[in-house]
Amino acid sequence: MTSDHTPADDIVYDLVSIQYHALQASQLYDTYAQDAQGHDDVESFIRECQEQDAQRAVRCHELLTALTKDSGLSS
């Protein structure tokens, strides 16, 4: 992976967008899970989705760090 990407690059913007939406969705799943109480199969599915979005956000962070490591913007 090259490290000559800036925050203005489409690929960086795309990853930030994916990360943002994954984190936003992950928060909403708590409400969805509450709504599904009493329906164990549905609640389990919602928790599975929540975990997948949390993992997606972490992976985006890793990719963004790698892409921007030489730009002085990585964490």
Question: What would you note in describing this structure?
Answer:
It is a single chain. This protein has 75 residues and is mainly α. The protein has one domain (10-68). The chain contains 2 helices and no strands.
Topology:
Elements: H1 10-35, H2 40-68
Question: TL;DR?
Answer:
The chain is mainly alpha-helical. Helices cover 73% and strands 0% of the residues.
Keyword list:
mainly alpha
N- to C-terminal separation? 17 Å
Class from secondary-structure proportions:
mainly alpha
Query: From the alpha-carbon coordinates, what is the Rg to the nearest angstrom?
Result: 16 Å
Number of helices: 2
Which whole number gives the mean pLDDT? 88
Shape: elongated
Share of helix, binned? over 70%
Spans with pLDDT under 50 lasting ≥5 residues? none
Main sheet: strands, sense, barrel = none
Provide the β-strand percentage band.
Answer: under 5%
Number of strands: 0
Order of helices and strands: HH
Number of domains: 1
